[in-house]
Amino acid sequence: MSAFSSLGLNPNLVATLQAANYTEPTPIQAQSIPLILSGHDVMAGAQTGTGKTAAFALPILHQLWASKDCEAPSTVKALVLAPTRELAQQIHKNFEKYSAATAIKVGLAYGGASLGVQMTALKEGVDVLVATPGRLIDLLFKKAVTLDALQYLVFDEADRMLDMGFKDEINMILKRVPKQRQTLLFSATLDDAIFKLSKTLLNKPKLVEVSERNAVASEVEQIVYNVDADRKRELISHMIGSKNWQQVLIFTRTKQDADHLAKEMCKDGVKTQSIHGDKSQGVRDKVLAEFKEGKVRALVATDVAARGLDIQELKYVFNYQLPYIAEDYIHRIGRTGRAGESGLAISLLSIGEEYLLEEIEALLDTRLNQQWLPGYEPDLTKEIQPDRKNSKAAQKRRAKKRAYGQSTGNKRKPSRK
Ligand code: AMP
Fold it and tell me: What are phi and psi of 342, to 5 degrees?
């Protein structure tokens, strides 16, 4: 008997999983699926790459199938909310893959794409809807969708939804869904804000945690190189070239840095593209497809744009700059080492950025060894200007401001990319 059937899943679903080479459930799946099948609300802490999508998708599909509701004209019975388009696309793709042997219809709605096309698709009826909160609200107001028959509500990457300021949208959506429902909340990080949110969303949830809180995928090797800020690009191009790495994801903090770095790396002879919220959905999809196919060797991304990217066998991630929000480090390096594959995450640290590393180390409860890459040792003769405004507290305050103002000038909340 397959390990998946012992969890109580429908044999047809199990056959689909076998065909996709899913032989063993991952820990998050092994723990969540039985709880969800027995009707509990679940709050799960699982970082990306752990198989969390299947952990909620499979039991939902199983239950929809068992209820045979899907033979009737489709109304939305399961809603999955995701913070970004990329993540929504990824979840939708997974649902389609797992439901291939069923009559269950899965729909997708996200901002930045034609509302009309999505409205037409919804008119034909869907059983499962994967949506970003803003676009869902547009559709609700236009009466293109109703959630009156909803039975399952999923929040994926709930921590990021809060970071992106979706609290009001979540509350609006909650007013339009039945109180009697099963609710599942997945979050890479479980902190006080998530526990507080869970109180308004979930009913006596079972808590599932697959690894220590705020842990990173265990197969990811983490390296920190000290390097001068103006030599970071050179170091990345050198490593990619000399080691013949083919698929490399690089994170910058801003869209401007992403564009600039991609341009300069192309000059170094490394075919590179950038992906961020200012690029249209069509361009982002095209760039991502080229990266996955190996036509583009390096992809430079901002944090929000990279959420939900699932690239099979992505081995190398660079942090050109460390993120201002320490949790983003976990999300970034979670792009590699997915589903047990090994991965390498290299962070480039220049003078003045040490406090960001300290915050990450505090979050991970681990020290990350700093080292020098031969040929790229930092120039210690460069004088460090004493800066009274550079106290740790001041740096932190500025970092937070910058993080929230990064995409919207000086506004507090980041734009929904
Ligand atoms: P996720 O954390 O949901 O983004 O999943 C990460 C990757 O693991 C995706 O490419 C999934 O297709 C894959 N995956 C999920 N569950 C399993 C499994 N039980 N066996 C093998 N691969 C899996």
Answer: -85, 155
